[in-house]
Amino acid sequence: MARYHILPERSRLAAEARSSLHPIRIETTGLEGWFEAELVGNRFDPGVSPKGCVEIPAARLKTGNPLYDRELERRLEVRRYPDVRGEVREVRELDPSGRYLVRGELSFHGATCTVDGEVRLRVVDARHVEVDGEQVIDMRRFGLDPPRILMLKVYPEVRVRGWVVAEREV
Q: Which residues have C-beta within 8 Å of that of residue 163, sequence separation ≥ 6?
């Protein structure tokens, strides 16, 4: 099975929470990790189940607003829970265009929950692939109550999107 390492400088994570006033957005690079898979053309080999892991330091999750960032750091308890980690457990092809259903474990803020999401695979060249996907996550599943910041109420559902660029190890 081929092993790919995620290129942190080219991979991104974005999250958007809705609030009573306006959306709160986070976007950062720095995703790290790896996955193992066999490719047949532009698709995962259906006979070999991909496995992998992606991680990002919780301290990288910033909005750019100092007030929001202090509250986010406090609520996420980044010193106690320094990393957000996802592990791929199962991949199932949805259609031949490169869409897959991924099931895995997401560890965040001291809790680990099973999550499902749809991703799209794109083979860039002989050594590089891109995987991107989106999922709505309810922060209460991870023991986080939605914050209130002054008069701002934040809703518990957060839309998370990831773009991973990975390079095949030689």
A: 11, 12, 13, 130, 131, 132
**pLDDT tens-digit series, residues 153-167:** 899 999 999 999 999
pLDDT in tens, 99-153: 999 999 999 999 999 999 999 999 999 999 999 999 999 999 999 988 777 778 8
Q: What is the CB-side half-sphere exposure of residue 116 using CA atoms within 13 A?
A: 5
pTM of this structure:
0.90
The β-bridge partners of 149 are 152
* Angle in degrees, CA 121, 124, 130, rounded to 5: 40
- Judge: domain 2-168, CATH 2.40.128.110: yes
The Cα 119–Cα 100 span in angstroms is 5
- The one-letter amino acid at 18: R
- Each domain of the chain, given as residue ranges in start order, spans 2-168
The tally of CA atoms less than 13 A away on the side-chain side of residue 108 is 25
Quote the CA–CA distance of 146 and 169 in Å, as a whole number: 41
